[in-house]
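CORE FACILITY INTAKE
Project code: CF-77B
Contact: R.S. (postdoc)
Sample description: multi-component assembly, three entities in total
Requested service: structural model of the whole complex
Turnaround: standard
Below are the sequence entries exactly as provided by the requester. Do not edit them.
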Amino acid sequence: MRKIVVAVGFALCTLLLGHAADGQPLRAAATGDRAGTPTADQQFKITRVTPEYWRVTIDHPPFNIFGPDSIPQLSTVIAQIERDPQLKVVVFDSAVPGFFLTHYDFTAPLDLTIRMAPGPTGLPPLPDMLVRLSRAPVVSIVQIRGRASGVGSELALASDMRFASREKAVLSQFEVGAGFVPGGGPMARLPRLVGRGRALEILLSGNDIPADLAERYGYVNRAVPEAELDHFVDALARRISTFDKQSIAEIKTLVNNVSLPTDGELAAEWRGFLASVQRPAAQQRIKMLLDIGLQRDPTVETNLAKYTGEVSNQAGKQ
Amino acid sequence: MRKIVVAVGFALCTLLLGHAADGQPLRAAATGDRAGTPTADQQFKITRVTPEYWRVTIDHPPFNIFGPDSIPQLSTVIAQIERDPQLKVVVFDSAVPGFFLTHYDFTAPLDLTIRMAPGPTGLPPLPDMLVRLSRAPVVSIVQIRGRASGVGSELALASDMRFASREKAVLSQFEVGAGFVPGGGPMARLPRLVGRGRALEILLSGNDIPADLAERYGYVNRAVPEAELDHFVDALARRISTFDKQSIAEIKTLVNNVSLPTDGELAAEWRGFLASVQRPAAQQRIKMLLDIGLQRDPTVETNLAKYTGEVSNQAGKQ
Amino acid sequence: MRKIVVAVGFALCTLLLGHAADGQPLRAAATGDRAGTPTADQQFKITRVTPEYWRVTIDHPPFNIFGPDSIPQLSTVIAQIERDPQLKVVVFDSAVPGFFLTHYDFTAPLDLTIRMAPGPTGLPPLPDMLVRLSRAPVVSIVQIRGRASGVGSELALASDMRFASREKAVLSQFEVGAGFVPGGGPMARLPRLVGRGRALEILLSGNDIPADLAERYGYVNRAVPEAELDHFVDALARRISTFDKQSIAEIKTLVNNVSLPTDGELAAEWRGFLASVQRPAAQQRIKMLLDIGLQRDPTVETNLAKYTGEVSNQAGKQ
């Protein structure tokens, strides 16, 4: 039943987002990246600190943008996490100053995303990967330094724990400001984590949420002073890595049973994303954002809430 | 099924609360107010800041008490919010110093409330209106300055976001202190928002919750310094008013799907309210509260937790 | 159906935990305690402050360890709370400095626990008692001073409200650090109270959570300064004790309907505990903890997170 619903969602998407923006290839390597064969250009680098404790470092400068080319790479990482018999804890961090992981690549043809086959859960690739991370018998921790917007926030929300640099982390679901619906689970995950009111504020304001506010809201576990963050997360991960893997997995499963969204809820979000991102309201705003420097100008990327506000204000007047 | 259950709840209520208190009409205009024909004496005033952004100002001095006469007026406002094709965001605020919106009118005959026909959802009028506000394709924000007790807290909880003056806002569900069960949704909404423990504290202590504590508990999104509250809420509302209405509505629906109570849960609360408010424990306490100045003396209204404590203490000794 | 599942869980448990540790009876009175006939050696002392307000003081020095002998005693207390027609509010506190209520007795033969008949809910005794406390028509408040680890945290989570000494309270679910799965409800209760991320941190780090952090996480209602805690909790309990018992019970039931775990979720946790505690990973770590002074040396008891970390680190290397 779920697969049918998803298939219908796919069938609706015959328009291409890319058409509006195709004239603006931003980086020479971009087309090659998108081919989906992860080779030397790994955006997600695994470091095996010990057999029980890995780090996955997101390294896709200049902004850690997530695109269709990122999907098979992250999927491969998640599959390794799921299957490794010794692994107990994995920390996601970033090698790119200012950015943990940010929004979907608006210059890539949407077609590339739509045509990807569903993952093992039957969900489309992005929600599939995030669901698998939530259910893996391994503890996932995100260490957020810089911006975690859009997909970055969604990866954080699908992980088991979130620790943010008090001085350097910013989270957001900016999508409403660009005229579309987020697709990677935040409408299902945020209300369960922070309550309906704060979830609606995050999702409907599209505002940047700095680390301290994110902690007060429960969006992250804690905001940790920048100078202590590396040590804090590393010590926690090393501690967990000495525990019994079976007990970890069983505790996590019991928590998941009462706290994870259903796959149907996540499928509905993805359909909402695909339909909305192709509507004129989104196409107009995305074009305006790209025109003023999105994916090109650090000022736009680091002030996304401000610029989505400006283009929405202009869009309404046209 | 739901309608049958509600009808039974209605059938139980053949006694009138008002009889005990009928001898104390508090304001000359009160009976006229209750006639239910909103004319010049509008308790809820709509200001269309822009076609996309309205403010609804609660203006029913001296205490913004909510009575049977308020119900059709608020219902008309909610219907306009639901149907307006351009509206994207509505802010509820108060024109009465010291009071956002407070408790139900204890001097009005309960009969007036009981006889009202169910609303479009099939629920009795008050829960019906609040449910419709939660489901409307429009963002609702309450800006709380002064007391939001009883119905005021329930309107706040049914809205999408809550911002409170750090210095001047107080929330409460005082009802247990007056010997009855709240009826407008807080048992269903508070545990989902603040967790079972804090919900039970709010509901079973009947204490005043000042803005800072309300923020720590998640009862409001944020406590904002008084000097910044107007600007903060206005800027947020203006920002949202530039976004795409369809995306707003879809995001809100997806959040609602995982976070709203069922109508059955809300119907059960209303039945609990109607049955309990007619029992001797409530009738005794309400009479004592009216005798010492409730609905008449600002000292009693602004220290409601203290006076419910005092009358309960006396009631237990009689 | 539920009873069958529980019976299967019981049938799995033919090994005895106690065998590894049987050579270390810690206190002369311990074996007598375990006989299950509460006489002079009451671990839970009821003080009837008024007919409406009781205190239950946990008094089982030196560490307020909870064992098979504690079960019938606490069960008797819960039964009195359930049935008393006048009682409205009960406060749990401790007479033992440094400890509210801590972990299960690792020196008692597990067999004693396994053979106990299910309680009135059909659940095994510990989850049965906790469920009954959550559902009782009486307000339960825990006043936490000292450590609330394991069963202590589980009793706190099953109670209606939790207030912790800012300076002297520490909560934890340390079990993962000893190689097993908690059994008294925290996987079902914590995610609903503090969200999935903070629940997983508490449960999978096994770390001590001091009062201030517990408040920020929502693990307790509030951290109250040590000097104010007694008065704060007593005043709240006295206030509630003057309210109408039927209204209290109805409000609590309506909250319970939307916030309590199912009995099936709790049964699954108990099965997880019983199976895991008998596996080598747990037996090895528990033996190591007892060898270094658990249940004997205050240094080990008060630094449980540190010592579970140390033995897990060693266990992994053997």
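Facility notes:
- The radius of gyration of chain C is 19 Å.
- Confidence is low (pLDDT under 50) at residues 1-40 of chain C.
Invoice: internal transfer
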